[in-house]
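The records we work with from here on pair a chain with its fold. Here is one such record, which you should read through line by line:
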Amino acid sequence: MTPVLLNNEQQQMALRFARECVWQALNPAQPISGLTDPVFDSPLASFVTLTTDGQLRGCIGSLEAHRSLADDVAQNAHSAAFRDPRFLPVTIDELPDLSFEISILSKPESLSFTDEQDLFRQVIPHRDGVIIEQGNHRSTFLPQVWEQLPDHTTFFNYLKRKAGLDEATPVTELDVQTYQVQSFRERANQ
């Protein structure tokens, strides 16, 4: 199921808003314009990804809708910039070189499969984001990750590692969900 689609104008508004949220955190006197279009009142899940020169600088998101899209983008932009445990917090000097990308997620759907081949037939590269779960171990990759990990075996092995699982863990021992995204990004220096 495809998520709600934002038109080009709404996409640009969301990207500006995400950037303003980070700018305002670094410069508290700076006001934020907010998102007034009613589409941003809808409860939707999103991820905000920050890159510098094509290299990941932060990525945080929600897998399930639990607040308005405006609130979700604001919180995830802030968290991607300042709370991603893989990186130091973004500085004001870095902000002009950051590129923002927003992915709006469809509702995750559980897959039923009998073995690895059956799972791999159901998961479509470049279309599907994947969530795996086993006990307290959980991880996800957005569909964009297929660009770096183009085959199913490598994709799932990295996903298992990200979840803190051994790569040898059989996929039949995992709960697997897929989702799709509408993804849009800005160029640096916007």
